[in-house]
Design brief:
43% helix; 13 helices; 339 residues; alpha/beta; single chain; Rossmann fold; 11 strands
Length: 339
């Protein structure tokens, strides 16, 4: 059998498997076939180092057994709903190849906007005095794609002035993130990776005298009900702890906001700026909005000191490509007007 014939056979069998997945329910037959061919092209490029041009040129030639075996294994795993990125072991994010595995979430294209929001904020801080101390923390780093992409986008001079941390509760995720950082940033990487929960990490962080805290988090935000309704490519494949935020979905995010605001209110300094960048689900935004409104009027803050009597909290939403509220920036700027 030729390359062209064998690939066509695999692609058509792959379409049958894709048609059963809820995330592809609105795809036409031709769209499913295009997707199947695209996945096969990615696989052959990744595992056999065959480009689209190579495949085209080899089309009429007999396909060797090693490539038949590669394609058969691919089809078997995809029929079991194993994501393509876990089969190839990598995923493209912000134009860089990141290693991924079942210990890490697969980076989504929409999360690139979260990177852009943080990058834009840090770039606007370029006029700050050299003595300004800023820390950047990626909470729930996973593959490290967010903080690594941010560091790659800002200038090297600015990156050197920022204290960089990335935390996760999974040691396998931390190991993967370190590998990605070494490969993408290289020997100049200054990110400190640590296996720890944000609940344990933040108290020590806020004991340090930074002028500005920039926290970015893509915490789990699915409810238990939503989790059971999502694609099998996600459910049962990607780490559940990184997906489900609690019974309603917003529990971990609310806990983070509450802890950051509480710790900040106890800082014995006259000036402090905290920017919290979050990826959220549109379904949990109303609850988070309600909480932020309560906090803004001082109903949630605990033990306020003489500098921060009400601890004003200001939030701003941003939408994804589909027009849904997907990102939230919370600003705790205790001196002066909010940005």
């Amino acid at each position: 059998m030729t390359y062209r014939q064998y690939i066509s056979q695999i692609a058509n069998q792959q379409v049958v498997a894709l048609r059963k997945d809820v995330q592809y329910q609105n795809y036409s037959a031709s769209q499913l076939l295009q997707l199947a061919y695209r996945e096969i092209a990615i696989l052959l490029d990744n595992k056999a180092h065959l480009s689209n041009l190579d495949i085209s040129l080899l089309g009429s030639q007999k396909i060797p057994k090693k490539h038949q075996k590669l394609l058969n294994n691919f089809l078997k795993k995809r029929q079991q709903s194993v994501p393509l990125s876990y089969i190839t072991g990598e995923n493209i994010f912000c134009d860089k190849k990141f290693k991924v595995n079942p210990a890490t979430l697969i980076p989504r294209p929409e999360t690139e906007k979260l990177v852009d929001l943080v990058t834009d904020y840090l770039q606007k801080k370029s006029d700050l005095p050299i003595e300004d101390k800023t820390c950047l923390v990626d909470i729930g780093t996973g593959s490290g794609c967010i903080i690594i992409s941010i560091i790659k986008k800002i200038s090297p001079e600015k990156a050197k002035r920022i204290d960089q941390c990335a935390i996760d509760i999974s040691q396998k995720a931390i190991t993967t993130a370190k590998t990605n950082a070494n490969q993408i940033i290289g020997k100049d990487c200054q990110i400190k990776f640590q296996k720890i929960s944000f609940q344990k990490f933040l108290p020590n962080l806020f004991k340090k005298n930074f002028d500005s805290y920039v926290l970015v988090a893509n915490l789990p935000y699915l409810s238990k009900e939503e989790y059971h309704a999502i694609s099998p490519e996600v459910r049962g494949q990607e780490p559940k702890k990184a997906l489900v935020g609690g019974r309603e979905g917003q529990e971990e995010i609310i806990q983070l906001i509450k802890q950051v605001s509480s710790l900040a209110s106890r800082k014995k300094r006259k000036k402090i700026s905290i920017q919290l960048f979050l990826e959220i689900s549109p379904t949990i935004y109303p609850t988070i909005k309600k909480y932020c409104k309560q906090y803004k009027y001082g109903q949630v803050a605990t033990r306020p000191n003489k500098y921060f009597a009400t601890c004003p909290l200001h939030s701003k939403t941003f939408r994804d490509l589909s027009g849904k509220i997907r990102f939230l920036k919370i600003n705790l700027n205790f001196i002066g007007s909010p940005e």
